[in-house]
Specification:
By secondary structure, the chain is an alpha+beta fold. It is 27% helix and 32% strand. The protein is built from three helices and six strands. It has a six-stranded antiparallel beta sheet with strand order 1-2-4-5-6-3, with helices on one face. Helix 1 packs across helix 3.
């Protein structure tokens, strides 16, 4: 099976309520089910299905205490289908993890502030690669919101190798709020 059919939200740490964690999990599962029904295949659903949610929190921003920050922490183990030809975590796989995981604190904070989980659409993603990770290494993926505006949504993400105690990759992901597509005959 390509996706987890159920996420045990009671096992997820963090200060978010169980209802908020369940809403976020329901959103993740709904997207996975839609993609499965559409026949979307490839490495993304397989790899992302192995993500384990460890923390879901809504915190006061340290730099601006009147603002909130979404924080989602995930873990996973590097497996053979995540490697490049040199036997280390593939850069594209790191980018996939940053892409998907950085969307979660955005969805979380938008759930808190608007009642709707906004994922947005990618505008830009800047990824820095710091150190390799090998098969069997345990990764901790820490994602936090930077800004959550009416049109622009931004999060940062760090992938830590907790086996080797080093930063593997980091990224900043900027998204735009999604709008419904319209049919137009204009070019």
């Amino acid at each position: 099976m390509d996706t987890k059919e159920w996420i045990d939200v009671a096992a997820i740490g963090g200060n978010a309520s169980i209802e908020l964690k369940q809403s976020l999990a329901d959103h993740v599962i709904a997207i996975a089910k839609v993609n499965k029904a559409r026949g979307i295949r490839g490495f993304e659903p397989v790899i992302y299905s192995r993500i384990e949610y460890k923390e879901v929190s809504v915190l006061q921003k340290a730099e601006e205490p009147e603002k909130l920050e979404g924080r989602v922490v995930c873990e996973m183990t590097v497996e053979n289908d995540m490697l490049n030809g040199r036997g280390t975590l593939h850069g594209a796989c790191s980018a996939l993890l940053i892409d998907n995981c950085s969307a979660m604190p955005i969805a979380l904070l938008s759930l808190v502030t608007t009642g709707k989980a906004e994922l947005g659409v990618s505008q830009s993603m800047n990824v820095l690669y710091h150190a390799p990770a090998m098969t069997g290494d345990r990764l901790r993926i820490v994602s936090t919101t930077i800004t959550l505006g009416s049109r622009t949504l931004t999060a940062r993400c760090e992938i830590w190798n907790i086996t080797e105690h080093r930063l593997v990759a980091s990224g900043v992901h900027t998204k735009m709020t999604a709008t419904e597509p319209t049919v137009s005959s204009k070019l």
